[in-house]
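Final report, results section. Input specification for complex C-07:
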Amino acid sequence: MNLESLLHDRLAPALAAVAGAPVDPAVRVSPHADFQSGVALALARSLGRPPREIAAEVAAAADLSGVATAVVSGPGFLNLHVADELITGALDALRHDERLGIAPVTAPSRIVIDYSGPNVAKEMHVGHLRSTIIGDALARLLSWQGHDVRRVNHLGDWGTPFGMLIEHLTEAGDGDHSLGDLTGFYQAARARFDADEDFRTRSRLRVVALQNGDGPTRDLWRRLVAQSEKAFLAVYDTLGVTLGPDDFAGESSYQDDLAGVVDDLAARGLLSESDGALCAFPAGFTGRDGAPLPLIVRKADGGFGYAATDLAALRHRVGTIGATELLYVVGMPQQTHFRMVFAVARAAGWLPDDVTAEHIGFGAILSTSGCMIRTRSGTSVRLADLLDAAVDRATVPAIGIAAVKYADLCSDRRGDYVFDLDRMLASVGNTGPYLQYAYARIRSIFRKADGGPGPVRLTDPAERELALALLGLDPAIATAAALREPHRLTTYLHDLAAAFSVFYERCPVLRADEPTRASRLALADLTARTLQIGMFLLGIEALDEI
Ligand code: ARG
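Structure output:
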C-alpha cells in the first residue's frame, strides 16, 4: 500500500478541475499532519487567487471518503489526516502477505548491472568496495521488484600490464605461492619493469604472445585470472554479496568483437585519426582547452583499450543479452568516460532510444582526517584489511560487516564519506548495527510471548506513528529503486526502527490486556518483517539474537 500515491490519485481529479489542467498534487509526508500538499501555494500566482481559497476548493471537491480528511492550514497548505480504518485495514492485509504488500512490477525490464569490476593481479581496494556494495543493493532491489536483473562483473583481465605480470610469473619460480599475495606480486613485477630494460622488452613480447594466443602464455594468464577470481569471490563471500563465478565477464571476453566495433564505427563515419590513434569525437565533449575530447577506440600501436572494450561490452549487452536498461556502478572520476561511451554508442545505433544507459557514480571514502584512504606508503588500503579491522572491532563478525556496508549505503552515493569505525559500529544512530539490534530486540519479544498477533487497533499515538511508518516500505523501495539511491531505503528503515523504539517505550506489549496485546504483537511482528526485508534488500544480515 502506497498512501502517497493513493492520496495523489484522490486529489488529482479535484485539482485538475480547480486548476483547469492536470497538476501534480505533490503529496509529501509531513511533521504537521500525516501528509501535506503545498500545491495551492504553487498555483496561486498562475490562477490569480488566494492559496487558502484554492486549497479549500480542492479539499471540498476531492473524493477522500474512507481515505483521509483534508484541512487547510497556514498560508494555504492542505493537511491530510489518514483515516484510522484505512491504516488498520492495510496493516491487517500486510500481515497475511509475504511481500508486505509490494506487488512485482507489471512490466519487468531486463537490466544489466555492471558492478564491482576489480582488476586481475591486484587486490580489490576501497574504490571497488563502494561499487560492490551499492551495485549489490541495487541488484537486490531491482530483482525484488520483479525485474530481470543480470549482474555483470567487468573484470580488468586484459591489457599491457599483463605482459609484465606473466613475464614475472614465469621468472618468479613457484607461481601459485607468489600469487598468494597479489599486491606483493604486482608490486614486484612493477619494480622489475621500472628497473630492468631487458625485462621490459620481454614483457612487451609477452603482450604480443598473449594477444596472438600463444599456448604457454595463455596458460599463465589463465592462472593469474583464476587466482584473482578466487580472491575476489572470497571477498564477496565475506561481504555477503550476490556476485558469483558466473557473473565474471572479463574485458578479455570482448577481444573478438573489437575489430567489428572499429569497422562499425568507421562505416558510420564516426572515427577519425589523431596522432595515429583512431578516435571518436562525440558532440558536446571538450577538454579544458576547449578542443574536442577524443574517445580512443584504437591506440596508435594498434592495441585496444578500456573505451573500446566498454563499447564492445555495451553492444553485447543490448544486442545479445537484450537489456533495456544498463547501469554502471563506477566511481565519479569515470563519469566523462561513460558519458562519452554512451554518446558514441547512441550515434552508432547500438543504444536505441528505448534503451537507457546510466552511470551510477559515487564519491570517495575518506579517512577520519579527511583524506582519501591510503596507507602510510601512499598506496591504497587493501579492502580485506578494512574489513578485518571492522570485524575485529565488532562483537560479532556480521555486525562489523553490516556496519561497513550500511555506512556505504546510508548517505547520497554521490558524496564522499568518512570511514570512521567508531561511528559506523555505534549501536545507536543511523548505523547498520542499530537496525540489527532493533530487529533482534523484536525477535526476543516473540521468544517470550505466548499467544500470537491479532488484528491491529490504534489506541495510542505511538502505535499510530509506527503503523504509518510500516506503510512506508512500498514508497521507500520504489524511490530507492527509481533513483538508484539505496540511502532512501536506509533512511526509511532507520526511521521505522526509531518509531518502533518510541512505541516500545510507551506501549507495553506482553503486559497489555487483550485485544491490545495481540494488536501490539502484530505491530511488532510487522516491524520485524519490514526490517528483515529491507535489510535483505540492502544486503545486511538480520540476526535473530545478538
Ligand atoms: N576495472 C575498472 C576499474 O577498476 C572498473 C570497471 C567498471 N566497468 C566498466 N564497464 N568499465 O576502474
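Residues 215-239 form the longest helix (25 residues). The chain is about 50% helix and 10% strand. This concludes the modelling results for the funded period.
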